[in-house]
Design a protein that fits this description.
The protein has 209 residues and is α/β, with parallel strands linked by helices. It contains six helices and 13 strands. The model has no long low-confidence stretch (mean pLDDT 94). The site of uracil has 10 residues, from helix 6.
């Protein structure tokens, strides 16, 4: 079932995730740790990206080097995904950023798209969809569908906390998409929150609790 899921196993990621999970973590600390954990996960995602050989000259000698071969587009799912972009854009400033706005209807828990603005070069790009929580998987699947309709072919999905039902949903509809996460939690509660999870990532990030 977990064929295309990469769960990062790293002490730094684990400790940052614990800070995010703790209900006593203040918004400023929450923001900083969310940004930093996002960068760690992005580093894992980049592992398989293609590079191009270049020659560079150090102050002492010419030597071989590598740079990323193609364009990168990062797409946060609004609103909580914006928090992940803050760190990632500092780490990978050459990446263009698209935005997808999908809200979850509180009753049906189904996704409704209210905003979509994507860069034009999606078909040539390595596209990274980001959302801190992979809960029901409905928003992620709707966003992945939008990305594919707009030409994206190489897509990864980075999320801080995934859960089993969300992973199953994404894998059933988008088996080609690699999911990179810091945790896989067992379940969702009746309101669609991941348990144990970390609560509402957007509210905690923006201090709107
Ligand atoms: N969105 C969140 O912010 N948290 C959850 O647990 C599920 C969806």
């Amino acid at each position: 079932m977990r064929s295309n899921v990469t769960q990062i196993d790293h002490p730094l990621a684990a400790s940052k995730l614990s800070i995010l999970r703790a209900k006593t973590t203040a918004p400023d600390e929450f923001r900083r740790n969310l940004q930093e954990l996002s960068i760690i996960l992005l580093t894992e995602a980049t592992r398989a990206w293609t590079t191009r050989d270049i020659e560079i000259e150090t102050p002492l000698k010419k030597c071989a080097g590598k740079i990323l071969a193609g364009p990168v587009v990062i797409v946060p799912i609004l609103r909580a995904g914006l928090g992940m972009i803050d760190g990632m854009s500092r780490f990978l400033p050459e990446a263009n950023v698209g935005h997808v706005g999908i809200y979850r209807d509180e009753k049906s828990l189904r996704p409704t798209t209210y905003f979509c603005r994507l860069p034009s070069e999606l078909s040539a790009a390595q596209v990274v969809l980001v959302d801190p929580m992979l809960a029901t998987g409905h928003s992620a699947c709707a966003a992945l569908e939008l990305l594919k309709k707009n030409g994206a072919t190489k897509i990864q999905f980075i999320t801080l906390v995934a859960c089993e039902p969300g992973i199953a949903q994404v894998q059933s509809q988008h088996p080609d998409v690699q999911i990179i996460t810091a945790a896989v939690d067992p379940e969702l509660n009746e309101s669609g929150y991941i348990v144990p999870g970390l609560g509402d990532a957007g509210d905690r990030y923006f201090g709107t609790l």
